[in-house]
Amino acid sequence: MRIFFITKELPFPPDNGHRVRTLHILKGLARTHKVTLVCQSETPSSQLSAVSSQLLASGLEQVCESIEIVPVPLKQEGLGRLAAGFLSLFSPLPYSIRSRYCPLMKQKMKELLNKENFDAILCDGIHQAINIPETNIRMILNEHNIESTIIGRYAGIERQILRKIFALIECSKMKSYERRTWQRFNQVLVCSNEDKQGVVAKTLNVKVDVVPNGVDTKYFCLNNAQPEPNRLIYTGLMSWFPNRDAVLYFVKEIYPLIKKEIPNVSFWIVGKGPTDEIKALPESDTSIHVTGFVDDVQPLVWQSICFVVPLRVGSGTRLKILEAMAMGKTVVSTRIGAEGIEAVPEKHILLADAPQIFADQVIRLLKDENLRRSIEKESRRFIEEKYSWDKICEDLRIILLA
């Protein structure tokens, strides 16, 4: 099968969940199919050598039949972004969709589709669907999240009235856009059964299949090093709102409850792009550590006792949880954080939503070594059996040929 694979950016380095899922699915398909990759780049022409270096490091040139990188205008920031957001109020399209419309990307796709014969178009994420020209080729949409769910949950916790109103408007527009767009595709791939139910409820005659997120179980592995006592950790791209909210919620509402019971506890916040507010946290509490970007999160995760996931906003499934489990770490998560992962509470993971209950679950793990050891063992086994990328990509090839 010849697949025309469209994504928003070169999925390398794999330093966030979106890129990790895209990279593994892309490489998995390229093992048995001929894949043409088309992606965007905001890199100025004078810095295209950096893109070439990334491409070489990713290994994609060796597995893809061809790769097309389309230069696009830089995203608007500051007042320009505010103006664009205001103008989007008068558009039927959500701001996040309207801002990604790119005539140059659409034209490049049209040229390639007219020039070559493809069996299928695989669109990586709903935001790029707006750039796909009209075609009779089979179209498949790979959804990383259900965007309207994320926006709706954000609106539910936002206290600033204007932001809340804007989010509610965006959520309504996104629901309409999702319904129209899903109906345009022959097949939709989602991360979880929860997401599948959401798509099926809003579409007719669209094939919907679950292709879960996974883990490179050879890379994310167990380590015999002794972890630091009472060390907690959270990892993620800190420039993304759900991660920022999770960290600040944990520090303000949950962490003080844990410290009352275990005074020598520490909390490590690991990930690219921490805001000034997050960077300032260690100034008021020296037991909190903010690392910013690190080349490899594994050593810091291995050194920790417990991986906390206090997410209040999100959709899809969290790669951070799967990776922590693959490293044999105990995870305490909200139900939204663990959504879509078929882990058994008390066997593979501990769940809690209210601050006091979340704190109590963490305290349990820090105090009960037998419980912690049992969950560590079971969680690694669970990942090997169900969430290995090798198995997921093999299942995906079967799904596409069905």
Describe the structure.
The chain is an alpha/beta fold and 402 residues long. The protein has 2 domains: 2-214 and 389-401, Rossmann fold; 231-386, Glycogen Phosphorylase B (Rossmann fold, 3-Layer(aba) Sandwich). The protein is built from 17 helices and 13 strands. It has helices spanning 17-30, 48-58, 60-63, 78-88, 95-98, 103-115, 147-157, 161-184, 193-200, 241-261, 276-279, 281-284, 298-302, 319-326, 355-367, 369-386, 389-401; strands at residues 2-7, 34-41, 66-71, 120-124, 138-142, 187-190, 207-210, 231-235, 266-270, 288-292, 306-309, 330-333, 350-351. α7 runs antiparallel to α8 (161-184) and α10 (241-261) crosses α15 (355-367). The radius of gyration is 21 Å and the shape is globular. The protein starts with a strand and ends with a helix.
Compact description:
With 402 residues, this protein is an alpha/beta fold. Helices cover 46% and strands 16% of the residues.
Characteristic key phrases:
Rossmann fold; 7-stranded parallel beta sheet; alpha/beta; globular; 402 residues
CATH hierarchy class name of the largest domain: Alpha Beta
In which order are the strands of the major sheet placed?
3-2-1-4-5-6-7
CATH homology superfamily name of the largest domain: Glycogen Phosphorylase B
Which of globular, elongated, flat, extended, rod-shaped describes the shape?
A: globular
- The share of residues in helices is 40-55%
CATH topology annotation of the largest domain: Rossmann fold
When the domains are counted, the total is 2
Proper CATH architecture of the largest domain: 3-Layer(aba) Sandwich
Number of helices: 17
Radius of gyration from the alpha-carbon trace, in angstroms: 21 Å
For the residues shown, what is the average pLDDT? 90
